[in-house]
Amino acid sequence: MYAWIWRHLPGPLAVRVGLAVALVAGVVALLMFVIFPWLEPLLPFNNVTAG
Amino acid sequence: MGTVEDARQGTGRISGALTGPDVPSPRPRRRAAEPDRVRTVIRTIGEVLITLGVVVLLFVVYEVYVTDVISAGLQQDATKQLDDRWKTPEQGPERVDHFDGLNEGEGFAKIYIPAFGADYHFTVIEGTSERSLEIGPGHYLDTDYPGQPGNFAVAGHRVGKGAPFNDLDLLSSCDAIVVETQNAWYIYRMLPKKDEVANWASVKQGKPACNATGSQGQPQAVNPLPGEYEQTVGMEIVSPTQGAVIAPVPHKPGTKISKGEQAALLTLTTCHPKFSDRQRLIVHGVLVDQWTKNPAEPDKRPAELQEG
Fold it and tell me: pLDDT tens-digit profile of B21-70?
């Protein structure tokens, strides 16, 4: 999977490394700001109210 | 491209020739494609599993650190809004707190727990929805307000989202919980714990906070509450469904004690144990002192804030 992505990144090595870092950062941001905030209330970790 | 392929085939032929007639010659490339595909599938499954593991770790980072950063910003905004609102003088000559017309998600008071450090303070937000609790400790909508007879009940996160009540289990009886409103300061102290009730007189002796004097020189006596309040102790761990802990008389939702005769209590709730919502950690405090802010001395703060 990662090898496939790497093979399909265009440009010379420096550009590929830059693109790869950007992709990882994008995925992490998507997780942190969209997916996790949506997921978190559904999980039984942090309910603090009684009743 | 063509030349590279040709070169490879050439190499295969040469090595085949070198191994001799008894040894089977290397498989041609077309048949090798089958194990390659299997290998690719297995590798991809492995990569997906590793990725999922990393995602779970990232979720922990999110829950414990990132939500703290987000909530710190929200809490700062709420505190600034509250400060701005408090700066504009109240209408009319009476400087009395009134809490009607509060919107959910709006800050209306500040809570200080000196035992958690001199800089521990949070703006209390109206309501206990997910959104309110993300900003700061949230006031249960149908409970009373600071200083009023009954129960001023507040919920707060234990882990992440600013974790205002992270160390709630470390509070001990008589610790001060100070609430500031626009016009007044309210000093609550944690009630005796269950195992301290029986020999409270001797426990009390050893704690300076239990024998503090108030703003008028009066003793701020903390004592086990009598009668219907028997079950109201300083700290308890209950199941999430026990909503009666935030009732005006805790554990007695159907009490016959009239509003005016009820003790002025404060109840803090958070999840327990940490990282779980299996139970709730509850802290009850009782109002021991209160004083109205003097406009001439806007910077006067309660001496209790220095405890800790």
Answer: 555 555 555 556 677 889 989 999 999 999 999 999 999 999 888 999 99
Measured on CA atoms in the order B89, B90, B94, B95, is the torsion positive or negative?
Answer: negative
Least CB-CB distance to B47: which of A2, A40, A41? Answer: A2
This model of the complex carries an ipTM of: 0.88
Q: How far A43 CA lies from chain B's nearest CA (Å)?
A: 9
Looking at CA atoms only, how far is residue B230 from chain A in angstroms?
A: 20
HSE, side-chain direction, 13 A CA sphere, residue B6: 3
Nearest to B245 among A3, A41, A50 (CB): A50
pTM of the model: 0.81
